[in-house]
Design brief:
Blueprint: H1 2-18, H2 23-34, H3 38-42, E1 49-50, E2 53-56, E3 59-66, E4 72-79, E5 89-92, H4 95-110, E6 122-123, E7 126-127, H5 130-144, H6 151-164, H7 170-177, H8 182-189
Antiparallel strand pairs: 1-2, 2-5, 3-4, 6-7
Helix pairs in contact: 1-2, 1-5, 2-4, 2-5, 2-6
Length: 196
């Protein structure tokens, strides 16, 4: 809800002020403006951000490899496609989110990471994963004493705000979300933001 979103943002801002190398805090803040799937967020590259527009073209995905002993090993991989054809989209990045992207770029450069065309969200020379973003949300929720939430709940909140905006039609809101099915979008992303 609105109050929890405010508290989560406040906590992420506080953590970044205290630990300016923790890029995940900026990813959390940025995604309150974008509402991306967490796999899309962590797969972003600098070449995807051009002239205040963000081009969604890939995602992190769990891959499974069968080992010689017959067991399966899971690993994360960035694949060069989104979840569905509707996932290919271009989003306008508001100025407050652009400022956060600029902070990410500054921190990356301070840490010696190339910023073109490499991964946006880096930490200790590695791309952040969906798990690292979700663990930040979970830690913030625990610290605030609220029910555990992850990126998907923040995505729902952001997409609900977009759907609530009288200046944005339903088709544009669905495109922003990367969905084509009206029923799925309404049933999963349109909620009251003022209560649990």
């Amino acid at each position: 809800n609105e109050e929890e979103e405010h508290l989560l943002k406040e906590l992420a801002q506080k953590e970044f002020a205290e630990h300016p190398n923790r890029i995940a805090t900026l990813a959390v803040l940025i995604n309150f403006s974008l509402g991306l799937r967490v796999g899309e967020l962590v797969a972003l590259k600098w070449k995807d951000l051009r002239d205040s527009y963000l081009y969604i073209r890939r995602m992190e995905q769990q891959q499974y490899e069968k080992l010689d002993n017959g067991k399966w090993k899971k690993h994360l991989e960035v694949v060069e496609h989104p979840k569905s054809d509707a996932g290919y989209r271009t989003l306008y990045v508001v100025s407050s989110a652009m400022e956060l992207f600029n902070k990410v770029r500054d921190v990356n450069l301070q840490n010696g990471y190339s910023c073109d065309p490499e991964d946006i969200f880096m930490y200790r020379k590695h791309r952040l994963t969906a798990n690292s973003i979700n663990s930040h949300y979970e830690r913030y929720c625990k610290e605030l004493g609220i029910k555990k939430k992850g990126n998907h709940k923040a995505r729902k909140t952001t997409l609900t705000k977009i759907a609530d905006n009288p200046n944005i039609n339903l088709k544009d809101a669905m495109n922003w979300a990367g969905h084509r099915d009206v029923k799925t979008f309404i049933n999963h992303y349109c909620f009251s933001r003022y209560s649990d």
